[in-house]
Write a sequence for this structure.
């Protein structure tokens, strides 16, 4: 792609993966919400100036996304004049979770009348909730801010925001421009694959990818909103699960997925030994694998997905299935699938967006579950207590092209806290609450020793 744009460009066309997000977000996938719950009214002028500092240090956060729907072209540009974000106020939520859901379903990037538009990539809203609580929600376009960047942003924001409360003023990381798209940072040779292999893989993906088993669809057709359900596991059980992963040399995502697959099959009352094929999208943060290597401070989208599937027939041991899931991903990574198939998967996602009929029941579901290869780790601090921070959730909308359940896992003070999101009315709240409760039961019942 464009080698002429230097790393500190103040404007450039979007790269291939960013392009897919620019196509997906208007349909309802990739509106990231970072929600903070406070026990005292946040000082809005201080909050706003903290956000401005972040926008100053990370130009992409004050950039404008220009969309031309008639040609499907998109570009990012950063005005030299400060583009000062204004915090909005709302009292339209009765709870923290409602504020979070509400924000995932506000879509500033939907383009109804096919005109060229220029939109901000970040918004902030404060909600006055009942019982003397306040929620602050940042809303971002996922194409410019992946989960790693979002977690970093949250840490920086909390550092800046609590600095006034006699906490150490954080040295904030600074970037000079918008940064490169991921495609421009793939190490030489890693993305190439033989022409024939590309054709075979594309055929494999297009014929098979959408033919896997899914959860029961409560309503066919396009979903129109994203809903949230939480999966939390206490300190001791989380510890036990993490030790189980460690002793088997696997990662947390594999056992989460295994629990999800087992719960999915159990939800269906199938005869014994009937096989189901479930698909998984694993999002891999490529920052450490790129050239140049990028740090977490690099705001942008630098994840790549690996899509694979597993047969489940019921009666599996959760750890055995987890090991199988983990081994399959390791093999794919060793074959550089996260680089070689990036363009194919982006193409496939755009195909599904243009032709929802390719997906089962036109629901735009492309896999059963999506997970991140590594969890986010966050610990609370004295500063957080002083600013009255009670809770914190980060996730993104999925009612455009997406899986049925997207899991955003965090280890917070050693406890597993998963933000799980699903499309509605494709899946119902009752169905997904049950599903996640089953997953939790399976995780809690898992015997961690080998
Ligand atoms: C809010 O923060 C600003 C600094 O940004 C400070 O000058 C002001 O006194 C604070 N207001 C309150 C009510 O604490
Ligand atoms: C979504 O569609 C359902 C019917 O399919 C409707 O009841 C609901 O109000 C719609 N929600 C939104 C947010 O438009
Ligand atoms: C976070 O807290 C957990 C449990 O309290 C602890 O094991 C871990 O080392 C902490 N991590 C950091 C980075 O402080």
């Amino acid at each position: 792609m464009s080698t002429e744009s230097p790393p500190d460009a103040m404007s450039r066309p979007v790269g291939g993966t960013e392009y897919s997000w620019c196509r997906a977000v208007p349909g309802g996938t990739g509106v990231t919400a970072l929600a903070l719950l406070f026990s005292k009214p946040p000082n809005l002028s201080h909050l706003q100036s903290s956000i401005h500092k972040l926008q100053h240090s990370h130009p992409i956060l004050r950039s404008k996304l220009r969309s031309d729907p008639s040609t499907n072209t998109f570009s990012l540009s950063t005005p030299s004049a400060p583009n000062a974000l204004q915090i909005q106020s709302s009292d339209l939520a009765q709870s923290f979770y409602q504020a979070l859901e509400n924000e995932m379903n506000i879509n500033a990037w939907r383009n109804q009348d096919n005109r060229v538009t220029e939109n901000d990539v970040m918004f902030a809203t404060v909600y006055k909730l009942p019982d003397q609580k306040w929620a602050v929600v940042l809303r971002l376009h996922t194409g410019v801010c992946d989960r790693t960047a979002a977690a970093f942003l949250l840490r920086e924001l909390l550092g800046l925001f609590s600095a006034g409360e006699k906490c150490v003023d954080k040295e904030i990381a600074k970037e000079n421009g918008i940064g490169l798209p991921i495609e421009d940072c793939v190490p030489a040779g890693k993305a190439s694959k033989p022409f024939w292999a590309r054709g075979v893989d594309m055929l494999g993906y297009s014929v098979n990818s959408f033919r896997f088993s899914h959860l029961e669809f409560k309503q066919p057709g396009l979903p129109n909103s994203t809903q949230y359900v939480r999966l939390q596991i206490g300190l001791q059980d989380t510890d036990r699960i993490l030790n189980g992963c460690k002793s088997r040399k696997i990662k947390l995502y594999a056992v989460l997925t295994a629990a999800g697959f087992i719960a999915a099959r159990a939800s269906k009352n199938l005869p014994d030994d009937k096989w189901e094929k479930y698909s998984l999208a694993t999002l891999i943060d490529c920052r450490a694998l790129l050239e140049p290597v990028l740090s977490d401070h690099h705001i942008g989208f630098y994840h790549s997905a690996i899509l694979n599937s597993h047969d489940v027939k019921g009666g599996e041991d959760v750890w055995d299935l987890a090991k199988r899931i983990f081994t399959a991903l390791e093999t794919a990574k060793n074959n550089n699938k996260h680089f070689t198939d990036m363009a194919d998967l982006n193409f496939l996602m755009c195909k599904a967006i243009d032709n929802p009929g390719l997906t089962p029941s036109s629901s735009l579901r492309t896999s059963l579950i999506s997970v991140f290869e590594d969890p986010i780790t966050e610990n609370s601090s004295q500063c957080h207590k002083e600013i009255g921070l009670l809770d914190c959730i980060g996730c993104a909308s999925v009612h455009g092209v997406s899986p049925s359940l997207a899991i955003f896992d965090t280890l917070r003070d050693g406890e597993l806290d998963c933000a799980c999101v699903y499309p509605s009315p494709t899946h119902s709240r009752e169905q997904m609450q049950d599903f996640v409760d089953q997953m939790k039961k399976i995780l809690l019942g898992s015997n961690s020793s080998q």
